[in-house]
Amino acid sequence: MPAEPKPYDVLVVDDEKIVGESISAALADLCTLSWAGSGESALELIEERHFDLIFLDISMPGLSGLEVLKRVKHLDYSMNVVMISAIDRAHEAVEAMKLGAFDYLTKPFSKEDVVEITKRVAGKRVLDSSLSLRLDEFKGRSDYQSIITQAPEMLAVFSEVEKAAASSCSILITGESGTGKELLAALIHKRSPRAKGQMVAINCAAIPAELLESELFGHEKGSFTGAHSRKIGKFEFASKGTIFLDEVASLRIDLQAKLLRALQERKITRVGGHEDIPIDVRLVAATNERLESLIEAGKFRDDLYYRLSVVPIYLPPLRERSGDIPLLASHFLKVFATEHKKRFKLFTPSVISLLDRYPWPGNIRELRNFVERTVILAEDKEVVDEPDIPFNLLFPEVEEPETFRFEDRGLKLAMDAFERHYVMKYLKKCRWNQSEAARRMKIHRNTLVRRMRALSIRP
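Given the sequence above, the corresponding structure tokens read:
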């Protein structure tokens, strides 16, 4: 009776065959294994077939492990790569992690180390596959194709959209600025029984407070200076559809009371009018502020809050959406390359790694702006590399490092941002003379070179 095929395909890339043999011995019962003695032969195999896991030695004659890793990630970014490093080359293993490696093993390693790391990669593959199938269920529906994501964190959002859209209850979308709250509101409208009606969007912060009531509820002729005729408000205009109020936290208290009445009684009164007008709309509101804090400060009505948030939906920031930064960056690159008639097709893995580590406080809007600026400023070619990136957008130059806005970056990102600013400042002062810059920073030149590499600073 033939043996069952092993479902997991592993490639070992190392010029020392004994390393390949030791990994093969550890995984013989778990995987189908292949071996390549050089980076060049490994790439030939990788171009022919997909491997679930690659063990890749950093130090090899010919193509180095880091160079092979970059090319692997060009071919298929989803391939899991575990770097094999000697103890004295551990800093290169860390660099490999920034380029997209899953993990690294330091020589000498045990059979248990190999098995444990393989099981972790296998578990990740099963989880990714399961989440991908569930996301595909949503992405297969035409309404969802406007939202570009592969993040499992978005599954909860989509599930809530499906449940909430079927009803006519009010929905409150919360999330940071630039996360796509209006796009989500449009999705809710499309998935609802009101999809054939209008969706009317209004930004409450963009309209002067004295004009906002008229925008929302309309006005009668002569009700105020300049009211030369009757005007229909957004609530009437959106009849049998959806009205989306963005930045609802900016509403004045008196307008909050009128909005609450409209939601409770399902009717409005135009400015300067006396007639009650029935309305049939579904309200979706959005805010990037914590309404609970505004309620405590007396700036937002708690009864309105409860009316708005019958179904609350939290839209996670870009930095919390696993895998979406590379996906969106690549999408925007194609869009803007076409728009500006440039040849750009992709970012190098090191650029993708840099973008993936940046916290994007402005979220998708900031990423979109960043990619467009890159396309406009960079030399026209097929691949965008680190020298093409306008780093001043990610790390703005300031005279005093204390003015950096570190609050939301987290300690590691804040330290990296500060160190990069500090190093760049001295390099520019010394006209990129590394020896002189190192002397002024009171560190050894080799230390400076290592830190430049770790911080993606190229001379």
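Residues 1-5, 126-133, 396-409 have pLDDT under 50 and may be disordered. Try to locate this feature in the token string yourself.
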